Amino acid sequence: MKRYDLIVVGAGPSGLSAAIEAAKCGMEVIVFDENKKPGGQLFKQIHKFFGSKEHKAKIRGFRIGQDLLREADSLGVHVQLDATVMGMYMDKEITVRIGDGIQHYKGDSIIIATGASENMVTFPGWTLPGVIGAGAAQTMMNLHGIKPGNRVLMLGTGNVGLVVSYQLLQAGCQVAALVDAAPRIGGYGVHASKVSRCGVPFYLSHTIVKAEGNDCVTGVTIAQVDEQFKFIPGTEKHFDVDTICIAVGLSPMSQLLKMAGCKMEDNPRKGGQVPLCDKYGETSLKGVFVAGDVSGIEEASSAMIEGRISGIAAACSLGYITGSRLEEKYQEHHKALNGLRQGMFAPENRGKILKKTEEGIDISESLLQKGYLTADEIEKYPGVTHQKGIHPVMECSQNIPCNPCQDACPKKCIKIGENITSLPAIDEKAQCVGCGMCVAACSGQAIFLVDEDIGDGFASVTLPYEFLPLPQKGDMGTALDRSGRPCCQAEVLNIKSLPAFDHTNLLTIKVPAEMAMNARFFKQI
Fold first, then answer.
1. What integer best gives the mean pLDDT of the chain?
2. CATH tag for 2-117+250-340 (out of 2.120.10.30, 3.50.50.60, 3.30.1300.10, 2.160.10.10)
């Protein structure tokens, strides 16, 4: 039997973060993961994170994963891959399948960071090849460079469904529609908006009737549902697709904890059956801790902070640090965690229908039901002004924890303040220089640089662009509005790509002046 100060199960964001913090305290740490590569979901996440600097805001998920792996390696953390933990027992012992053998390990403390698994819904044809989870689609695209399909229908409009739909478009797939049985989009409005302006329609209060095809998916039928989620006859709609993506939530992978005898609870707000634990992540079994989605479904940013807390708590439980040091570090990390648990999407607001933002502005029904803000609604927000010359237009309309735009602007044109969930506003006394740092820094791709009068009845719009091939200066194309409808002809004035932009290219297009506040995407001819 091999013995370690700390055994961590799961090499995802929470597990690696826990291992790093424990190793910093002097613990001998081993991490087991059943996959061939460490990093968990991070290496699938090619989008930029929300939050603030301390939450790794505006950094792409896979880069965060690389940073965690480097730090863990530098601290001597041993990461054992292709290692499936088969069982965990009350005396903090585990059995692990490595290759063809079963090995036995004992930890003085254990942190379970096994994450979550995708939920599935059943319907006629759901077992056909071509019906896949959104996470599987992400794995195919972002880890293996394989298109999941050519024409895809996405079921689910939470953040996973929205983000993966956008990534499908980036991979060259067509997204026929996003469908959700709920009457409102579940994820961030900025994620919905960037999908909508690409021309993808939303069908809320709809769900799948059946998948079509004999040997594989060749089509899908959806229908509208009533308040009891029953099909409304006569509302059926057919789509020719070869892939159906399912993004209907996650469930904590808490099996090892149940096996070991941890006290559990069924908590729908946390995603299902989760262990009872204290503020440090310690379960009912002394010395056994949890972190990340296994203790409740949240974003990867939250999982990393929970991992840090459980790592230092494990160190304290074995005397590697004092209780006062634990409490000091806990307060620091808890403050950062609370920052992510504020705003419209805070845990206490789940299931609630909010009518106004924190600033008292009516929440857009169009955004919640169609995926885009209307031209009239845009004018209500403090990030939208009409200044002379080039200036930022920030179409951020929900109170979500994010502020990298404020830090990115060298001229301090953008102000959010100390409350990370406040809507961004323009400081009209500051002078925008058109550098584009705010556009590139925005994790939601919701900032545009607009010059409403460049002469001869034209305006320029600089927008974030993350598609290949890149347009070239002088190319002609079509500008699309927020709903994805063509609104005017557009000419490419410039395409700007800098290392500081981290692959968010700045595309500047010339449009008729009256379209300056409508043109939000460029489609090449």
1. 95
2. 3.50.50.60
